Amino acid sequence: MKLIKFLGYYILGLFGIVALSSAPSLLQGNGLVDLGLYAENTWKLAREIVQPENWVYQFRQEQLNVFAFLWDPYFYSMRILGAALLLGFGLALILALLTQLLPKMIIRVVKRILVFLEAIPDLMVAFLLQMFIVFIFKQTGVHLMKFVTLGDERIYIAPITVLAVLPMISLFRVILLLMEEELTKDYVDFALSKGIRHNAIIAVHVLRNIVKSTFYHSKIILWGTLSSLFVIEYIFNIRGLFSFVMEDFRPMVIAAALIMVFTPFYILYQGIEIFTEKTALQMNDKKFIHTFSKPTHLSWKQRLGDYVKGIAAHFRNKKFLVGFAVIFTILAVSVIHTVIHEEPVENFTLIYDEDGNLLSSKPHPPSKYVLLGTDQNGYSILDQLLTGAKYTILFAGIIALLRMALGFLLAVPYALFIKERWKRRIERFVDSFHFLPLSVIAVILLAPVLTGTTSGFEYSFTERILVEAGVLTLLVVPLTTVLIGNEIRLITNTEYIDGARVLGGNSNHILFRHIMPHLHSKLGIIFGQQFIQVLLILIHLGLFNIFLGGTSIMLNESYKAWPYSVTFEWSGIISGSRNAFMSGHEWIVVPVFVAFIVLILAMQLIIEGIQEVQQKRVGVRIEKQRWFVARKQLQPAGESFERKPSPDQFGFVGQENIGRSENHG
Questions:
Q1: Which residues cross the membrane (predicted)?
Q2: How far apart (Å, rounded) are the C-alpha atoms in residues 168 and 539?
């Protein structure tokens, strides 16, 4: 039975890959979206998948078997990915165990450092490594490692090192948080009272209890790492799997590549989950009340007052306030800059000093004439940051809000009204999306729409924005639906929800009066996480010259320019990253990386603030001090904690009551 389920979910995953691979045809027919052409091409691809003679890759005017041709670059990419994951996860576990031996104050500092490091984009990590290698070579003549390939040459150390950094940081932070939560449980106090050493408790009990949660978190980390692999291959000029996919965009090639990436991770994760799950004796599934009636009447003043109190509680939190203030200030300055300047982004072709002497040509370095310098087209970096901030922040916020809102609307019926066995099937199917690189899919779907030509764009500005918003939203909605649905299920399994049902509460009452107060903070956290993910996707798209609103590749019909964003949003500056670092023009991309890091850190502060407000509201247990620390604090200076008892400290249990009864008599 488990084998049938395993194969069934795998086939469902293949259907999803076929649907994604033919998605570019949605925009190739009549109108903005042609569902008829999409259905036709999807059915055609589904038939070709089961016909080996149609497994074709076009290479130098030759038709080769796509799976055989892609096998070697695929295996090269998987070696890099596998080694990076093993290195990153292994170091994360070792560092987490060593960190537990440190004092609490130092552990807090370590967690703060991890928050900062997690905000650094993978693209910047790659460039910093390359710059460090070049710097060491210039200073000492020592070439530490190769960081770029030529022809069929292959490198491993540099891409594995860069790719391992972010998984290591993410899992390191996750393990620390899971350990911290586990150490507050009662069994830890009981074990310490029995004389078991703190380190032994961590090694024997805590690690065993957090394995399952760590395993689930590793899937999300893997999802991000797959997109990072796509970027790393481009930065280091690696002829891996995704480089060949970019050379042949046909649906068959896309499907073959995604199937090859999907299969091993599906076998690993879903195989472990399905074949190791235990069938336990359970009560019948709880059925939610299928009656909707008018909810308890509350005046608009009462509702408004509740919302104002909730918002005020968040603004009283320092972390939330600082994070919100940073993002709001950047957004306000961007809007004001655009309004007060007729030409928000100034272009400098040549720069002369006061005496008319030529100082520089584009790209201009930072100077008193151009504070942060210009890009290759001569556009001021500072002006682009100020002008593009509003597009970057608002677009990321809107996409995050759409993902959260649509996920919530679908999560309510998923969590409350669908039978448990169907929930498990949906969850297994959606879980397969973690094994597909989001950045690769976004590039494949958006490149034909957002890339301009010498004669302009095929689609209007509004259509380009709507298509990009739709793609980046719909690709993640299934995951947010299951995520929010699982949060709702956890709440509905609590005892007070059972009490509300027994007392006759209908669905409206339970949802809005009992579930939503606990779900508000979760939705806020999900919004923040999706906001950060959208920013990272924009960075990846920018590297491949796919910009928000469209990519212009010509200034006019006679002058060819570097690709630039028509909205001057921040990822437009990212496009020249590789050339900028290699040519010594670091000033072009360093400011935009700093801007992205500041924005991500601000949103992380907002997320932490929401968590703290919710913990204070529901009364989460405060982290316990270690037993031996508490014992040391209770022990008077210079005295031994063990004291010899005296006879006066003991008495019969009923002696006082006996005396009272005699006096009464």
A1: 7-27, 80-102, 114-136, 156-178, 220-237, 249-269, 320-340, 393-417, 429-450, 465-484, 531-555, 587-607
A2: 21
Residue whose structure tokens are 């972010």: 166
Residues 380 and 364: beta-carbon distance below 8 Å: no
pLDDT tens-digit series, residues 502-544: 776 666 667 777 777 777 778 888 888 889 889 989 988 888 8
Helix (H) or strand (E) holding 301: helix 300-315
Q: Which residues of the chain have pLDDT under 50?
A: 279-285, 289-293, 556-558, 621-635, 637-642, 656-661, 664-665
Within 13 Å of residue 373, how many CA atoms lie on the same side as its CB?
A: 19
Name the helix (H) or strand (E) containing 74. helix 66-99
- C-alpha span between 70 and 148 (Å, rounded): 21
Rg (CA), the chain: 29
Burial of 219 (0-12, 13-18, 19+ CB in 10 A): middle
Nearest to 221 by CA among 157, 162, 163, 160: 163
The pTM assigned to this predicted structure is: 0.81
Quickly name the fold that domain 67-239 has.
Answer: MetI-like fold (1.10.3720)
Residue 597 backbone dihedrals phi, psi, to 5 degrees: -65, -45
The closest of 402, 407, 413 to 465, measured between CA atoms, is 402
Spans of all domains in the chain:
67-239, 300-618, 633-664
Residue 299: the pLDDT is 60
Q: Which residues contact 163 (CB under 8 A, 6 or more apart)?
A: 80, 81, 84, 88, 122, 225, 228, 229, 232
The residue to which tokens 């995951």 are assigned: 479
> Given this chain, do its domains 67-239 and 300-618 carry the same CATH topology?
yes
Query: Which pair of structure tokens corresponds to residue 586?
Result: 């670091």
Q: What does the DSSP 8-state code read for residue 514?
A: I
On whether the CB atoms of residues 389 and 570 are closer than 8 A, the answer is: yes
Name 321's Cβ contacts closer than 8 Å, sequence gap at least 6.
Answer: 315, 609
Please give the full DSSP string across 253-298, using - where no structure is assigned. HHHHHHHHHHHHHHHHHHHHHHHH------PPPPPPP----PPPP-
Measured distance CA(533)–CA(440) in Å, rounded: 14
The CATH number of 300-618, from 3.40.630.30, 1.10.10.60, 1.10.10.10, 1.10.3720.10, is 1.10.3720.10
Packing angle of the helix pair 381-416, 318-340 (nearest 10 deg): 130
Backbone angles phi, psi at 652, to 5 degrees: -70, 145
